[in-house]
Write a structure and sequence with these properties.
globular; 134 residues; 41% strand; binds zinc ion; alpha+beta
């Protein structure tokens, strides 16, 4: 079951410049900055009331974020939903015919296990499932 939207991911070219912009927009600072080496990405998290925004900057020219920006430019990258049990949820969705980019849950930013659904199977929207690591 999907509990709620956990965060919205935004692809940015330059995290430092974007932080200046988003700090002014949100009237606040990010609560966390984290590099996820396996994904070649630097993540910056803002908490806005009950919601989170994740800025994503590529740390390598062949990362998924670099390719996304090359193709589509900066902007909305993915919507992440919180689930209680990511493996059960992945199994359920695979049975429903949804395709995943990664076959198994992997460690993401902000203490989460994550998996991405392929946008081909979700009307062009990149959807991330995430489960808090306890
Ligand atoms: Zn995310």
């Amino acid at each position: 079951m999907f509990n709620k939207i956990e965060h919205i991911g935004i692809a940015v070219k330059n995290a430092e410049n974007s932080m200046t912009l988003f700090n002014a927009l949100f009237q606040g600072e990010p609560y966390k900055t984290e590099v996820v080496e396996s994904e070649h990405v630097k993540t910056i998290f803002y908490q806005i009331g009950p919601n989170k925004i994740e800025l994503l900057e590529s740390t390598s020219p062949d990362s998924a974020i670099a390719k996304f920006i090359e193709k589509k430019g900066e902007g909305m990258h993915h919507v992440a939903y919180e689930v209680d049990d990511i493996s059960t949820e992945m199994e359920r969705l695979k049975k429903e015919g949804f395709q995943f980019i990664n076959e198994y849950p992997k460690k993401g930013a902000d203490n989460k296990l994550i998996a991405f659904l392929h946008p081909k199977s979700t009307n062009g929207v990149l959807i991330e499932l995430c489960q808090e690591i306890k």
